[in-house]
TrEMBL record, chain A:
InterPro entries from the UniProt entry: F-box_dom (IPR001810), F-box_Sdz-33 (IPR012885), Zygotic_Embryogenesis-Asso (IPR053222)
Record domain Sdz-33 F-box: where: 189-247
Organism in which the protein naturally occurs: Caenorhabditis nigoni
Pfam families xrefs: F-box, FBA_2
Gene (UniProt): Cnig_chr_V.g21608
F-box domain span: 6-45
Species lineage: Eukaryota, Metazoa, Ecdysozoa, Nematoda, Chromadorea
Name of the molecule in the record: Uncharacterized protein
From TrEMBL, chain B:
The entry's keywords: Ubl conjugation pathway
GO BP field: protein ubiquitination; ubiquitin-dependent protein catabolic process
Domain SKP1 component POZ: 38-96
Bias (Basic and acidic residues): 165-177
Gene: Cnig_chr_III.g8742
Name this polypeptide is given: Skp1-related protein
Domain named SKP1 component dimerisation: residues: 127-170
InterPro entries, per database record: SKP1, SKP1-like, SKP1-like_dim_sf, SKP1/BTB/POZ_sf, Skp1_comp_dimer, Skp1_comp_POZ
Family assignment from sequence similarity: Belongs to the SKP1 family.
Any Pfam family hit: Skp1
Length: 312, 188
């Protein structure tokens, strides 16, 4: 015989809700607007949420927080979100999955619902594992805000490029691209001129070809490229042009270029050729300072196989 | 263990048939009180066991009843079914003077009984037992889908909630109109 749970007193009801495990709480929140409000007022805590895009569906991951693990299983809950009013729940480490439905929901409603019940305003990480180009607008609509964007190695080149252009402006903190989207690109400047906070381009298989112009038009505050294909002569040119650019606004604060170690050693003299600089440290990790007429400073140092430029 | 006997509808309770377990300290005789539920069956319970209930503990702490007075004035809990009160009394006796364990496996498995127990325990303010009961209620829906939870806990849909809200507003409006009309009639 069923029982009428919502007729319990507020305090008892809250205690029942606080005693539920995480997956049951989420299921309960989907019963009605009233149960959603009750779930929202519970004391359940989760780790920051992540979403993974696979071709034309999204897997949304909810992990219990350390504190939550005392009452809920430690493993993640993985919700596969397809078009329409159903989702599939897979409990990490368990075989099989369950289908949940909420007839009045569309694909866009699930993630805001999950975020709302745990009082989260932003998704920690959006990971584009592989994606159909046509699905990117849907991704943008469903996941309106996230801290970190990761574009994976399995994406096709064009899809990865479009994903970067469409989604990186929404990433609040950091973008990481794990494949060389500069390869065969007609114009790499559109990637580098985006006004972004922090970007890592990483593809050890195919180094990113960079030019002096690329570095000069850069509009990314913190840029890391691993590995970059640029010569010592081009770096020297870049430093000279930066010095000449008195009173010109240059947005980057840090550029880190991973190069082959030997290349740095070989080109060190070439990089500094004709430049007035001041050594700060000259041992294994050389570090020097360059000043320009308007008082701006540039610190350059070597860190393992990388050359790092820090602009003041 | 509690002692019980089928009571009559009169206020005076019948003599309990079995003696309760005595408290550990023999030098101070333990005092006993009497409670009955909807079925009028009177349960004799020690003051030590009743300490679990903040409500009853508050009621008896300043009474200073003699055994006879206590027997003559059982606490009536007309809103609690007899079998549920029996469960509560049993639990209080079992956990008299003992630290409560983190889990209690002796709670009823039948959903409706558990639910009635939650209501009774909440009324009697027995915090530890309420904790166990609420956990047990939460376990009813372990691993269930939203549809299954809605069924088990009889959760109304949004449409049903909205209809009920509309109905309640309509009723409140009618009542208010009735009161206004009555006040106008009185004024005349």
């Amino acid at each position: 015989m069923p029982i009428r749970l919502l007729s319990l007193s507020g305090e008892d009801l809250q205690y029942v809700i606080n005693s539920m495990v995480l997956s049951d709480l989420i299921a309960f929140s989907l019963c009605s607007k009233r149960t959603k409000a009750l779930a929202k007022s519970s004391n359940h805590k989760i780790d920051p949420m992540s979403a993974y895009v696979y071709l034309n569906f999204i897997i949304f991951e909810i992990r219990p927080s350390e504190q939550e693990r005392q009452r809920s299983p430690r493993l993640s809950l993985l919700f596969s979100i397809y078009s329409g009013s159903r989702i599939t729940l897979t409990r990490a480490g368990e075989n099989g999955s369950e289908v949940w439905r909420r007839p009045e929901f569309t694909q866009s409603d699930w993630i805001p619902h999950f975020m709302s019940i745990f009082n989260e305003s932003v998704i920690q990480e959006l990971n584009i594992v592989e994606v159909e180009e046509s699905y990117l607008d849907t991704v943008k609509r469903i996941i309106p805000k996230f801290n970190k964007l990761e574009i994976g190695i399995a994406c096709f080149d064009d899809a990865a490029r479009i994903a970067f252009l469409k989604l990186s402006p929404i990433a609040v903190e950091h973008v990481e691209v794990q494949k060389n989207i500069f390869n065969n690109a007609t114009d790499t400047t559109k990637f580098l001129t985006l006004n972004l906070k922090s970007v890592t381009f990483q593809d050890p298989r195919y180094p990113f070809k960079l030019t002096v112009d690329d570095l000069l038009i850069l509009n990314i505050t913190d840029l890391t490229i691993d590995e970059a294909n640029i010569t010592g002569r081009e770096l020297n040119q870049f430093l000279k042009l930066w010095m000449k650019g008195n009173h010109k606004f240059y947005r980057p604060k840090s550029i880190r270029l991973a190069l082959e170690d030997e290349e740095i050693q070989l080109n060190r003299q070439e990089v500094l050729k004709g430049i007035q600089y001041e050594f700060v440290e000259e041992h294994d990790h050389f570090q020097f300072r360059i000043r320009r007429g308007d008082g701006k400073e540039l610190m350059v140092h070597k860190e393992e196989n990388s050359i790092v430029f820090n602009f003041s | 263990m509690s002692s019980t006997e089928q009571g009559t509808s009169s206020a005076a309770p019948a003599e309990p048939t079995t003696a309760p377990e005595s408290a550990a300290a023999p030098e101070v005789p333990e005092s006993f009180y009497y409670v009955h539920g909807k079925d009028k069956v009177v349960h004799k319970v020690s003051a030590g066991a009743l300490q679990h209930s903040a409500l009853i503990h508050g009621m008896i702490s300043n009474l200073g009843y003699t055994e006879e007075q206590a027997k003559a004035n059982p606490f009536p809990f007309e809103n609690i079914d007899g079998d549920i009160l029996q469960m509560v009394v049993d639990w209080c006796n079992q956990h008299k003077g003992k630290p409560t364990p983190p889990e209690d496996t002796n709670l009823p498995k039948q959903k409706e009984k558990l639910f009635d127990l939650v209501l009774a325990v909440n009324y009697l303010e027995i915090k530890e037992l309420l904790t166990y009961c609420c956990k047990q209620v939460a376990m009813m829906v372990k691993g269930k889908s939203p549809e299954e939870i809605r069924e088990i806990w009889m959760i109304p849909t949004d449409a049903e909630d909205e209809a009920a809200e509309k109905e309640a507003k309509k009723r409140a409006g009618k009542e208010a109109a009735g009161e206004t009309a009555a006040a106008a009639g009185d004024a005349k």
